[in-house]
Amino acid sequence: MKITIDRAACSGHARCAAAAPELFRLDDDGYALPFDSEVPEELEPAARDGETACPERAVTVVR
Asked: Which SS3 state, helix, strand or coil, does residue 32 take?
């Protein structure tokens, strides 16, 4: 499972990081940083939570 972040669509609400802080990191301005590795299986539900929390739909989780 991979996480992609559409940096152009991200508005810096930081809801992904609030929902899954173990996966989503933010830059100094509060925008989501790219996630460049595979999501560990035990964190897949957290990845989906972060995706769902984004009001801009800038976070996409793909299997």
From this structure: strand
pLDDT in tens, 2-47: 999 999 999 999 999 999 999 999 999 999 999 889 999 999 999 9
For the chain, what's the residue count? 63
Which tens digit of pLDDT belongs to each residue from 44-58?
A: 999 999 999 999 999
Contact of 63 with 15, CB cutoff 8 Å: no
For the chain, domains (ranges, CATH) are 2-62 (3.30.70.20)
Q: CB atoms < 10 A from the CB of 34, how many?
A: 9
Maximal CA-CA distance, the chain: 29
